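WARN retry 2 of 3 for item q-0093 after timeout on previous attempt; input resubmitted unchanged.
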Amino acid sequence: MAVVNRIAEFAEDMSTWRRALHRAPELGFDCAETAAFVVSRLQDFGVDEIHEGFAKTGVVALINGQAEGGVIGLRADMDALPIEEQTDAEHASLHPGRMHACGHDGHTTMLLGAARYLAETRKFAGKVALIFQPAEEDGGGAGVMVEEGMLDQFDIAQVYALHNAPNIPEGMFITQPGPVMAAVDNFHIYIRGEGGHAAMPHETSDPIIAALGIGQAIQTIVSRNHSATDELVISVTQVHAGTADNIVPDGAYLCGTVRSFDPHVQEMVARRLSEIVKGQAASFGVRADLDYQRGYPPTVNSKAETEAAVQTAAEIVGDTMVDGAIGRQMGAEDFAYMLQARPGAYVFLGQGAGATLHHPAYDFNDRIAPIGASYFARLVERLHPLT
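OK item q-0093 returned
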């Protein structure tokens, strides 16, 4: 495994940074302490410029190479999740109800490791823009940074990111050109009926029966309105109604998620959901409102940049530890907004067996941090070589 020697030398420092970040998780756009930690490290490394305040707490730092050239963007997300940690680790979260359950502490650490190496060596042409982004989990911080003109301000021509992958062999890179992660939409359904005594349901307009009917009918969208050869997932994830065993409530609530790749499929799902909610409500004599919310678009890797990413990964871990044709994943990622605006690639880095992402027992594997940092560093040197 050809981890960059200099990065291997400060692997213990990277572990220390990561665990410090893990102890102090922050949510959404409110990543001020994390951003301050990042800025302090970047100042220690001697980067050329540091710009703060993108998407409220985002940071963009620039490192100049030794010759003229373009600007390559490397992105890491910084935010955590509203989950109570159950790892019993010495470095566990110090904030109840918040934890780094998706490894963004590790992503930030890997980009900091690459930053330290690149600032020391500068064996590349052009510039590197180090993008530390808040609100990946909720809020679309990447989209906000794009809307604020971050890519244009720094003339960033291409963008790259990586994400750790539990239960993929440790140190293995996986990705593919084209769509690699799905678009994500959410729906909320509010049902209003007339409650009453459960012993006299004929005197009520029961919202629970309507909720059950709507939930069942939603399942027919995938099975009867959509081609089986295209990827689509619709999941009802919450149903809330009632307070007692002898009361028919006045209202009920359902919500869920939609994952797809094709805008036409998104349109079909939104239309059918509206028709189902309206029709089922009428059949059960209740009122129902649908709130359909468009979320992150599909994450689409550009071909040439993905090939460069695969070649770079193979340089670090060997050909047998890289899969450049993994198939589409139904998860979603707001890095999609950056890839809509610029060519680039999103890859996954295996971290071995363990709890999955968004699980309270999850913890980032510090052994893969030097691998990810080496990937970022070599990617810059490969794409912007000194001549």
